[in-house]
Amino acid sequence: MPVLPVPVCWPVSSTRPSESSRLEQEGEVVKELAKAFGKSLRWLYNLPEEEEGDFIEEEVDITKWNGIGVSDGKVVRIDWYDEDLTGVIPDFISKLNGLTYLFLGDNDISGDIPVSLGRLVNLRQLNLCRNRLTGSVPKSFKMLRKLEEMGLYNNDMESGTPGYLGGEGLREYLNGLGGGRNEGEGRFERRNKGNWRNWSKDVN
């Protein structure tokens, strides 16, 4: 009688990353993001910059990293407001697709807002105010259907109403764009159908 081969049953974890490994991967993205903004790993890990000696990265819990919030194995919040960040917003930030809150305001970030930021479809709040950003709001932002608040004032961006922005909501407000650093700090209102209009022009 022929001997039949024993069937192999692959564990589920071999086909999809575990929650911990996924968070580890996102942690690597956060590290690269901090470096892109000119910050050290000691800053990211909330360790004194002047402290002597080495540290073991594996022992630094990501939930204790500077301004990082985690939920269900994903990075959901980055709050690096007023942290002396420099450089430009890198395209790879879109790898953190679980982000719901991104606060990079009051820094020295320059360049255009990357199109890839529109891939962060879970974003609810975005603050990029008081930087040196240029260009205009990418049309990819029409994919941000969950976006409720966005601050862009005090940058060097082009003026105009970003009418293509989407998102459901009642009377949600967007800080307006200005043609110069101290101009046009109006607000845009998002109506029920998901469009934004220049609210400040209607009331002035």
UniProtKB/TrEMBL annotation:
Name the predominant localization. membrane
| UniProt keywords, alphabetically | Cell membrane, Leucine-rich repeat, Membrane, Repeat, Signal, Transmembrane, Transmembrane helix
Highest rank taxon of the organism: Eukaryota
Which GO cellular component terms, listed alphabetically, does the Swiss-Prot or TrEMBL entry include? endomembrane system; plasma membrane
Alphabetized InterPro entries for the sequence? Leu-rich_rpt (IPR001611), LRR_dom_sf (IPR032675), RLP_Defense_Trigger (IPR051502)
- Which residue ranges traverse the bilayer? none
Q: Does the keyword RNA-binding apply?
A: no
Write down what this protein is called: Uncharacterized protein
Q: Which organism is it from?
A: Triparma columacea
